[in-house]
């Protein structure tokens, strides 16, 4: 994968096809790769709306992969840390206010050496979840650099949210919640603290994004405008509790 325009490269097309197969309805006998199943997947791909693209960004080790796995599978990847190589994605369908919203969530590598790969994907992102680790001050200090990068590569109207992850590690915390709130306010982005380990606010972060994207894409005339900031403020719960 290089700097080719997403959507036109061979790699991208392959990933889209793989995503369709992965999410298409399972064949009754479970033969995932047989012809019937493949044609159903193709049909499904043509008839369903394109997924809304959400990207996870932030320093290496802040918990992007774990957050995605928690959201997708409800599990926590404990144990030794394996860094993401390049970029990976998972699909998840959410029901938002009675409407099915399909999210394609891109898990990017936080390591500097993969930065050029990530840059190529920003343009297609409808939403970005920018993470830092509350037990790692450097990851918080780097948020400004991430925001500069987002400003340079992402769409101007991209939905952005700041997440302070790993709040379950209270004893190792070095970034106060107020500091996260202050930074988010400075940049005008919604903010919440999360834990991929306990599940705190994980579902909420993705649901809030899905709601905003759904309201933007449907624009129903009589529907009141959805206010992401207000929704997050209202719904977010303290890290002392255990929302999942
Ligand atoms: N305590 C705690 N540990 C976490 C949490 N989220 C992730 N971790 C741990 O942090 C380490 C890094 O997590 P990853 O999800 O792989 O980090 P990443 O941001 O995807 O890293 P890159 O792929 O290198 O960009 C792993 O050892 C995880 O088990 C969390 O919410 N709480």
Question: Could you walk me through the main structural features you see in this protein, from its secondary elements to its overall organization?
Answer:
Belongs to the small GTPase superfamily. Rab family. It holds the Pfam family Ras. GO terms for molecular function: G protein activity; GTP binding; metal ion binding. This is RAB26, member RAS oncogene family. Keywords: GTP-binding, Nucleotide-binding. By secondary structure, the protein is of the alpha/beta class. The protein has helices at residues 10-23, 35-47, 64-73, 115-122, 137-141, 143-153, 177-187, 202-218, 228-235; strands at 52-58, 87-96, 99-108, 127-133, 159-165, 191-193. Strands 2-3-1-4-5-6 form a 6-stranded mixed sheet, with helices on both faces. Helix 7 (177-187) links the parallel strand 5 (159-165) and strand 6. The protein is globular, with a radius of gyration of 18 Å. 34% of the residues are buried. The model is unreliable at 1-34 and 239-244 (pLDDT under 50). Residues 60-66, 77-78, 81, 83-84, 109-111, 165-166, 168-169, 195-197 line the site of guanosine-5'-triphosphate (GTP).
């Amino acid at each position: 994968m290089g700097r080719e325009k997403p959507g036109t490269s061979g790699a991208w097309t392959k990933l889209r096809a793989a995503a369709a197969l992965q999410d298409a309805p399972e064949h009754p006998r479970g033969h995932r790769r047989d012809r019937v199943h493949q044609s159903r997947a193709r049909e499904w791909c043509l008839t369903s709306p394109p997924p809304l693209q959400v990207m996870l960004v932030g320093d290496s080790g802040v918990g992007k992969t774990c957050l995605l796995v928690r959201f997708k599978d409800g599990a926590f990847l404990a144990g030794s840390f394996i860094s993401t190589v390049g970029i990976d994605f998972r699909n998840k369908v959410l029901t938002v206010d009675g409407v099915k919203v399909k999210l394609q969530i891109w898990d990017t590598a936080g390591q500097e050496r993969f930065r050029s790969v990530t840059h190529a994907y920003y343009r297609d992102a409808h939403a970005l979840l920018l993470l830092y680790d509350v037990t790692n001050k450097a990851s918080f200090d780097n948020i400004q650099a991430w925001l500069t990068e987002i400003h340079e590569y992402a769409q101007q109207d991209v939905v952005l949210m700041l997440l302070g992850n790993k709040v379950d590690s209270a004893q190792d915390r070095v970034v106060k919640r107020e500091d996260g709130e202050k930074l988010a306010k400075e940049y005008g982005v919604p903010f919440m603290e999360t834990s991929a380990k306990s599940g705190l606010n994980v579902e909420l972060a993705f649901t809030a994004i899905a709601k905003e994207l759904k309201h933007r894409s449907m624009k129903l005339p009589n529907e009141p405008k959805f206010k992401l900031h207000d929704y997050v403020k209202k719904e977010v719960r303290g890290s002392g509790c255990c929302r999942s």
